[in-house]
Structures are given as C-alpha cells and as structure tokens.
Amino acid sequence: MSSRRMTTIAGSLVTASFSAVLILSATASADDQGPGSSKGGKVVDEAPDGVKLTTLLPEQISVDNKSEKTDITATVKNEGTKDSGKIQLLVVGFDGLTVNSVQGCSSIAESDLPEGSNSGFACPIDNLAAGKSKSYAVDASFDLDKTGKICLPVQTGDGKKTYWQQGPVPFGTTNPSPNAPATPLLLGTDNKPVGPGGDQLPKTGVARDLLPAGAAGAALMAAGVAGLWWSTRRPRQEI
C-alpha cells in the first residue's frame, strides 16, 4: 500500500493499482453515435503542465431487446497544449453493463478489476498529442432487468496515477420500447429493474441509487460524478 498513492474523490478513495498490460497496436474507430459527453467525469491526480485529459461517452446507446447487445464509443482526448506521454484508458463495466471486448485493447484479469466491477479492458497509448483524441469500439451487453454503469479512468502508463475518471456513470431508459427491436438508453440516467410482474419495463429514477456495499466504495453523486475504489490486490501482469 505504501507504494500506491491514495486519492480522495467525492468522499471516496481511488487507488490506481493497475500494472502495464499487453499492448496491442490496433486502435479502433467506432461508428459515430452522436454527440459525446464527459458527464460524470472529474480530474483525480494533477496531470503534467500543458496536458489536459478527458473522456467522452455517447449521450445515447441502443440495446437490442433480444440479444441485449450494444455498441459504445469510448473516446479519450488531450485538450492541452503538450503531448501526454504514455497513458492508458480503462473501460470498466458495472452491474447490468458488461464490457465484452474493446477492439485494440486487452482484458483486465478478474483479480485486478476494481471492486464491484464485472469486466474491464485496458487500452495503452504510447502518446496522445496535444489537441488529439482516440476512439475505441466497445462491444457490451446490457441486462435491462438491472441498472448498468460504465467507468472510463485515464491513467499513467504504469497505473500509478489517475488523471481523469468518468463514472461509474449510468445508462438508463426514459423511453421504453416494448414493441420495438431495441431500447434507447441515455447517459446519466438511472435504469430501474423490471418489476415483479415481469411486464413492466425499466423506467428512469429521479434519485441516484447507492452502489451495493463493498462495490466501488461510493454512491453516485448528484452531478453524476462517482468515486471508484480500485482493488488493492497486487495486479497480475498479463503475458
């Protein structure tokens, strides 16, 4: 623990505990899903002078009602005036949202996932030039009977610092589509599980639900910003 830096975010602890993972050279460019949003994002550790890293998620995704499959575009941006150097983007799923794959990225071992998450991928980036961005095609599943959240931390290449973290931010539905092939989900909207009768589709909640005890360590805040308690177990380096 002494070698790791603990950072407080919105009353929660963030421990960046990921080691460098297998670097795959391919960077995917997913289909455009409309305007991107940094909703639920917050600076964690201070980035080097001239570097300003943020992420974007689509404001809306569409979930196939039969297969429960969905595609998400995850984007990391350097809005600063200097190059970033080596960094990594993590794409992590919670609750009903499972990240199946991220093109050009490597799976995070289950033992190294943040507490409360169900899946995650690491996308190493050698350098992100000033004013540039990279987008990744995320293949995911969404169980509409549950809530679903996604988290995009941007860390140093060695995982010792987290410059930016978006989420865990929820996707949810405000427009149930029982007779349609797909259900639209909006970023920053809580998805409520189907009622006991089984014929009631998820609806949007007004208040944020708390993450389960021991999961991610914190409640979602009203502004959509959430703390994430990273696993303190020693990460297992992938080969």
Automatic annotation (TrEMBL):
Transmembrane found in the keyword field: yes
Superkingdom of origin: Bacteria
Signal peptide (residue range): 1-30
Keywords noted in UniProt: Membrane, Signal, Transmembrane, Transmembrane helix
Spans traversing the lipid bilayer: 210-230
Protein's name according to its UniProt entry: LPXTG cell wall anchor domain-containing protein
